[in-house]
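Please check these two lines:
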Amino acid sequence: MEHKEPQFGQQEQDKRRASAKSSSRPAVAESTRPASEVGCETAVMANNSSPHPRLPVDQLGRANRLAQKDAIFAGLTAGLVGAIIGGQFFKFGRNKTILTGIATGVISSYFFAQGFLSTRLAALEQQERDLHSTLIASSNDLPK
């Protein structure tokens, strides 16, 4: 499967150039190379007007992997508890108890992964916002 870089329309490129010229920050030379060649891959939410900062792909991947690891342990625990409840309190047979434990573990792992990932992404976004505001404040303090 071939990977293609997203193409922006001419209007989108014109808007970006106009906003770069009108902003108070120094202009940055636009590169025609894709971000993967530059070495700084970033992921952007589908809605470009959202206040979410651009997060590097490696940080997103690390957050996703850590969320999956945490969710696996949470799912195993929930599956064990589900199997114990099914076997002891509901008096399920052996097969139903095993099925109950597996189903509980898989479903809870999925939802725990979603929750852990959103928490980690929110923390990363907050760190990026804090860093950005610190950089802006320090650049305003520079003598002109």
About this structure: The helical segments are 10-22, 35-38, 57-89, 94-140. The longest strand covers residues 42-43. The chain has four helices and two strands.
